[in-house]
Amino acid sequence: MNKRQALVIACAALALHACIWAPGQHLSSMDLTRQGSLDGARYQLVPITPKLLAMDKSTTTPATVPTELATFKPEPYRIGVGDSLYITVWEHPELTSPAGSQQQPSANGRLVRADGTLFYPYVGLLKAAGMTVEELRAELTRRLATYVEQPQVDMSVISYGNQRITLRGAFVKTDPLPVTVTPMSLEQAIGAAQVNADQADLSGLVLTRDGHDYHLDLEALSRAHGLGEIWLKAGDQIYLPYGDRKEVYVLGEVTRPAAVPFKTGDMMLSQALGRVGGLNEVTAKGNAVYVIRGVEDMEKTPATIYQLSAQSPTAFALASQFPVHPGDVVFVGPAGVTRWNRFLSQLLPLSGLISNAASAKSNLNN
């Protein structure tokens, strides 16, 4: 067998192998039918069309506030342990400012003790915790009337104790927010904490109240102006997750294959492709853009493979309206010439080995 014959046989063998397995990742519409299996895993193939997008929109429900949160109205502030009250009894400075009128109001404040009581001259101990400011003012007026003729009492909270709203997760500030006499909405609390826009998952906010978790799409509710309708109360916990746990994986013939994190709940296919630099203009196959969904257990539950034919200008409009979900795999297949070039890149080193072997054998024979 001469060198030319050996090279031809090697090329034929490699070409036959390439029909079964192409170097690199490969998926084409020829491999897929409407329903079937691929490498033992079941799937169904769904083309991305205007009709499919219209059906998805008809079944999409707008973001709403849970009924329990929407119907909650803030109650008057109730005094808590650790609060400091400034109590004024008009025309009686000895009761109003026992530390002296030149002192700061905090020096003349009345502290609510750990047992919830408050001490006041002539009156003694009062059970203050749990009462509204108006209720405590009325009770103090009633008791002082025994010692002061027609007492005129005013009262305000000058510092707050341990009634808090806690924040965790992707906020710039996570210091607890005090509950005050002025009601606070969820929108105000988030504004005070400042969202870490680079890391936060805006669609996954969790408000925990009385042991129950309420999952809220912060970005969608902000568009609908629904955050101001949610009022907070003492003990509420707000958690904003980081976006690194929700990703879509963009692979294949794109500029920079990567895992793309979600920042909102409605990332579109065009956005996912844009964040990795788009399709590789040289190597990508236009009609081989796939979104593979439901890959957790493909042996038991068929996955859905959505196919976008990106060869026409209308495909960009479809891609801008097709939402991808966390865990989706976006795969862009290679063009035919790309697969052939990769085949040649593996064939040429082997042909060089064959040529060297043939030359060595010829030298030995000579």
From TrEMBL:
Entry keyword Ion transport: yes
InterPro entries, A to Z: Poly_export (IPR049712), Poly_export_N (IPR003715), SLBB_dom (IPR054765)
Signal peptide positions (record): 1-22
Domain Polysaccharide export protein N-terminal span(s) in chain numbering: 74-157
SLBB domain: residues covered: 164-239, 246-332
UniProt keywords, alphabetically: Cell outer membrane, Ion transport, Lipoprotein, Membrane, Palmitate, Polysaccharide transport, Porin, Signal, Sugar transport, Transmembrane, Transmembrane beta strand, Transport
Domain of life from the UniProt record: Bacteria
Subcellular localization(s) per the UniProt record: Cell outer membrane
Topological type in the membrane: Multi-pass membrane protein
Keyword Protein biosynthesis: no
Family, as annotated: Belongs to the BexD/CtrA/VexA family.
Name by which UniProt lists this protein: Polysaccharide biosynthesis/export family protein
Organism: Dyella koreensis
Record lineage: Bacteria, Pseudomonadati, Pseudomonadota, Gammaproteobacteria, Lysobacterales
